[in-house]
Amino acid sequence: MVNSIGIEEVNLDGFQIVRSEMFLHFPRKGEATCTVWPTKISFSKLALTSLNSCEYVRIEINPNTKCLLVVPVTSKDKDSIRWIKGQKEFTVRNMESKQFGDILYSTWGLNPQCNYRAAGRLISSKGKVMLLFNFTDAEMWKGKKAGKDSE
Question: 113 and 142 in contact (C-beta within 8 Å)?
Fold first, then answer.
């Protein structure tokens, strides 16, 4: 049935309102994150500030729990990695390493055509503060190259 201004009148029985909370995406800026690609690893700026903008870290992985640990260290630590860039305002840099990616993806059984992101939380052990990232339920998406290959 068409009303007087030419618009069809429709019975809306059966429609249910979708709650707006279903579409809220909490900004990633509110949590420390770690993202892994097959050839690199990166951390959010909040990860850096969570560890008081330390210049060097050591990365440890647990093959059983799919957890990655970021431990602040000095440059003298034999496994230290400089994870920041910049001189005045520090930011976290992408750390390229295909070798690391190969080991991580193989150890954790990750899909090499996908990238993964996990939120981290501050933990402490023996008085040392660290960031722990659990990748068991990580956000996953296909990489750009993978998407082109599959077309």
Answer: yes
- The tens place of each residue's pLDDT in the chain, 151 residues long, gives 777 777 888 787 888 888 776 665 555 557 899 999 999 999 998 999 999 989 999 999 999 999 999 999 999 999 999 998 877 667 778 899 999 999 999 999 999 999 999 999 999 999 999 999 999 999 999 977 544 443 3
117's enclosing H/E stretch is strand 114-125
The whole-angstrom separation of Cα 144 and Cα 114 is 9
Task: Note the Cα 134 to chain centre separation in Å.
Answer: 10
Mark out the alpha helices in 82-143 (DSSP H runs). Answer: 98-108
Predicted model pTM: 0.76
Nearest to 57 by CA among 131, 133, 118, 138: 131
